[in-house]
What does this fold into?
Amino acid sequence: MNDDIPQLKSYDDASLDAAFAMLRDEVRNESARGIDAEAFRLRWLGRKQGRLKLVSDAWLKSASPEARKPLGMRFNQLKQEIEAALEGRQAELKGLREGLKVPGSPLIRGIDITLPGTVRRPGVEHPLIKTMQEVVRVFHHLGYSTALGPQVETDFHNFEALNFPPNHPARDTQDTLVVAQQQSRPLRDRLLMRTHTSPVQIRTMAAEAPPLRIVVPGKVHRNDAADATHSPVFHQVEGLCVDTNITFSDLKGTLDHAMKALFGSGVKTRFFPSFFPFTEPSADVQISCIFCGGKGCRKCKHSGWIELLGCGMVDPAVFASVDQLRVAQGKEPAYDAKKISGFAFGMGVERIAMVLHGVSEIGLFYSGDMRFLEQFA
Ligand SMILES: [Zn+2]
It folds into this structure.
């Protein structure tokens, strides 16, 4: 509560109006705060130390004789208002007290339960999380289970075991965010922010023998400058299937089904030869443009196709690394490339969300702008 006596510099009508408006606000705020009615009366109308008396004494003392009358009238009016507020509060309290005695009264402990409540809107999933879950759900229906791994990885899990040669450009600090001050460690033990979710494949295979079907959602980091379609932190969903007799046809059938489940049964898929260190052969997958149905439009750069993910058959060198790791951990080798085979695929969640919802600026997903986010609620 404010106990200072406000200064009154001038006695013209405008200054008085402003000064009294401030006092009135004070009365209203304190009354609304619900302090005890008697304490409120003493504070404002107390005969010796009441705030109204202190303020009026201070202001009247320095007022010229002709200014005293309008000033006095205003103080009288304010006093009446305070008395009215006090009476209102007392009547309200009396009503509450009596209301409490009436069985079935809506007034319970001074709370009017007939008033509308405070609306608390439940939160919803962020569009990226929602998209990630949608992709994961498609693969759950195919019998895949979710696997997760750390975002700070060793060079071994992120690169070496995945068949990235030592001078591969992706290992360059231009593309990778590495943890500082590790020069004394052997290269394979140095820590970095994972550049893809693929190290989780290595961790899962090292822990479990085939058959294996996993889907790996997660956050990845690259030393990339942010632009309309790139962000240094983004999300991937990756999949791995290892079993006996897994062929490229299984890969094609699985991804064709997944794309139809995500984008509608009308989409077509096509596979282009590509290169990834950890798969051989490798392919890029395109889907027919969901905006123009393949006729060609601005969104698909008039090609009729949208590139969406990468995939391939797991490179035998990856299986060999996994078995090395298993042996080092005291486990039986289980990934003999002569007996088993597998495929892997990976997609960017932001990319899929952008295509699904027609968003052209990746930064919107991270901006926290409610006007954008509420469209997905
Ligand atoms: Zn198109």
